[in-house]
Specification:
By secondary structure, the chain is mostly beta strands. It has no helices and 8 strands. The protein has a 3-stranded mixed beta sheet with strand order 1-6-5, with no helix packed on it. The chain starts with 20 loop residues before the first strand and ends with a strand.
Amino acid sequence: MMPYRGNHVSTVDCNRDEPLCRVRHADLRRLSDESVFKVYCPACTEGVLLVKRDPETLDLISEDRCLFCGQWFVYEDETIGGEPVTRVEP
């Protein structure tokens, strides 16, 4: 898996087939001060990462995908917003 290199492209689904990137959620720019989870996508800067949850347990999981460009990310943080992050490898 490749570390994120900062390829700022902004076309819908333009990063859908790009390699997975590892990032720290704590280092990303928040969408607003009111949400500790929603952040701007570092790949396209227009999309949003919402932080995925396990559908059964509602635990935060470490993989996420930009809603705009489709780039896959894995968070390296142990916690996000004070909640533990469950490690999953896509």
